[in-house]
Amino acid sequence: MSLDASAVAHIAHLARLGIDESAVPDYARNLSEIIDFVEQLSGVDTGDVEPLAHPLEMGQRLRPDEVSETDQRERFQAIAPATEAGLYLVPRVIE
């Protein structure tokens, strides 16, 4: 698929990007190459491939779950506009 200058201008407008007119041919070529590559990827048969949660199937090294900072709830709530029972009160934004 090949994009023309008007398609690039339309995409730039939708993305609220300012593009110099002299750069439009380069953008059109680059975007066309990306679209062609995505079309090429969509043609690959992935029916026998199991989905992965992560590309590297290995355990993660986790650090010990230890407290690294002291509890400062009272200090933070003292400067908050409104609190009640240890919770921050905020204005309702959804009716």
TrEMBL record:
GO MF annotation: an example: ligase activity
Top class in the EC scheme: ligase
Pfam family, one: GatC
Gene3D superfamilies from the UniProt entry: Glu-tRNAGln amidotransferase C subunit, N-terminal domain
Biological process terms in GO annotation: glutaminyl-tRNAGln biosynthesis via transamidation; regulation of translational fidelity
EC number: 6.3.5.-
UniProt cross-references to InterPro entries, sorted A to Z: Asp/Glu-ADT_sf_sub_c, GatC
The keyword Ligase appears for this protein: yes
Identification of the protein by name: Glutamyl-tRNA(Gln) amidotransferase subunit C
Record keywords, A-Z: Ligase, Transferase
Organism expressing this protein natively: wastewater metagenome
